[in-house]
Design brief:
single chain, 208 residues, mainly alpha
Length: 208
């Protein structure tokens, strides 16, 4: 019979082995997707396994190929797009694809990014307003000594603080997305006007 101390050590060891195995599997999966071609990765977007589908989206987002990036954008829209409820793996995908779209995209992409910027800005304003509301409520509770006597006071404060921290993180990350979008939009706008200038110059030469 194992003593309690020995059994605790055994449990810790088993847990460590399990974590190491899971990390090894994740690494192998990542390497597998890194070796896939773009058509293979696009086919994987129809994979019913959610985790594997996400890995294919993440890998496609890193490829500097316009077809791959279009596929990622479609997949993200199907997955519900960028919302207050999903500031998770999608955030990092957007940080990969937006600069690539700025390099590879055309007028259609420019229009899509402008629309996306509007959506992100709306989400930021919405979250900021909620943040201010929570701040005001917490301040009101803090200034009112009678508030501490209310049943469930500590629980309510804990919940509001948790929401506040989450929303603050969301607003900060949303600003990073907006800054990244701004940079990509500037590049695509410059590219658009450069094409227009070349076209006008060509027309003038033809007239001469």
């Amino acid at each position: 019979m194992l003593c309690s101390n020995c059994y605790s050590k055994f449990q810790r060891k088993q847990k460590q082995i399990k974590l190491e195995n899971e990390e090894k599997q994740r690494k192998e999966q990542k390497e597998k997707y890194q070796k896939m071609s773009i058509p293979e990765l696009i086919r994987e977007l129809g994979n019913p396994n959610k985790e594997e589908k996400i890995m294919s989206i993440q890998e496609l987002g890193k490829r500097e190929d316009i077809e791959a990036l279009y596929a990622v954008m479609d997949a993200l829209n199907i997955e519900g797009g960028y919302s207050l409820e999903s500031i998770d793996w999608k955030y990092y995908v957007y940080l990969d694809i937006i600069p690539n779209l700025g390099k590879l995209g055309g007028d259609q992409v420019l229009n899509e990014l402008i629309k996306f910027r509007e959506k992100c800005n709306e989400k930021k304003i919405e979250a900021s307003e909620t943040l201010r509301l929570i701040e005001n409520t917490l301040e009101m509770y803090e200034k009112n000594p009678n508030a501490r006597k209310i049943e469930g006071y500590k629980k309510k404060i804990s919940e509001m603080t948790s929401d506040y921290n989450w929303l603050k993180d969301f607003v900060e990350k949303n600003q990073i997305i907006l800054d990244t979008l701004e940079e990509a939009i500037k590049k695509l706008t410059a590219k658009k006007f450069e094409k227009m200038a070349d076209r006008i110059e060509s027309n003038f030469k033809e007239m001469n």
